[in-house]
Amino acid sequence: QAGAGSRFPLANAVLVAVNVIVFCLGLSLNWAVGPRTGLFSIVTYGFAHASIWHLAGNMWVLLVFGNPVNRRLGNAWYLVAYLGTLVTLGFFARLCIGGYLVGASGAIFAVIMIALILMPAARIELGYFALFPITILIALISRPAEWLYLLIRWGGFSVRAVWALLLVPLMELWSLFWSGWNWTNTGHLLGMFC
Fold it and tell me: How far apart are CA 159 and CA 126, in angstroms?
């Protein structure tokens, strides 16, 4: 489509606004999905967040990855992908988990994977901050300019998005095995699969 890359990502802006409004109105606790929740909970949980940090992290990632995906897919197809993942994971959570779940993370991970698939040559800029002993591992890859960098290190680097197609699922799997089985990482992995 001509001009598809320049259009305003309206669907993503609306999703971010609804998430923020729901949190500010204090509706998050009432909108969880889980056993014996109402049928609409398979959608509402995705607009509810456990804390301001949960909301801020999800909305930042949604803005970074969602805007370019929304521009590429258009508003209608973007909403189909986002809400389709949200409903699929909400239905699964309502039937299969013993507790209650809130947050848009699964749908956001689906948007991340769509971005990586649609734009594999894009460069992703990553920043890091590390303390000793992790700094020793970094020193093996990048020799420090000063001895202080053996204790504390920060910086950035970029990778092509195609590498993230492998690294993001691996990081989620690592986290799942490191912290034990949990719905957070499982939801992220299911979102990527969707």
Answer: 8
Contacts of 178 (CB under 8 A, 6+ apart): none
Tokens standing for residue 167 = 């690294």
Give the integer Cα–Cα distance in Å for 57 and 132. 26
> Cα separation of 152 and 175, whole Å?
24
* Ramachandran bin of 131, using left for φ above 0, alpha for ψ from -120 to 50, beta for the remaining angles: beta
The two tokens of residue 146 are 């000063």
- The type of residue at 155 is G
C-alpha neighbours within 13 Å on the C-beta side of residue 138: 20
Say what the pLDDT of residue 3 is. Answer: 45
Say whether the peptide bond before residue 133 is cis (omega within 30 degrees of 0). Answer: yes
Residue 98: DSSP 8-state: S
Each residue's pLDDT tens digit, 50-100: 899 989 999 998 998 999 999 999 999 999 999 999 999 999 888 888 888
Given a cut of 60, whether residue 5 has pLDDT beyond it is: no
- Burial-class residue 165 by CB neighbours within 10 Å (0-12, 13-18, 19+): middle
What are the structure tokens assigned to 76, written together? 């209608």
DSSP structure string for 124-143? EEEEEEEETTHHHHHHHHS-
Whether 71 and 118 have beta carbons less than 8 Å apart is answered as: no
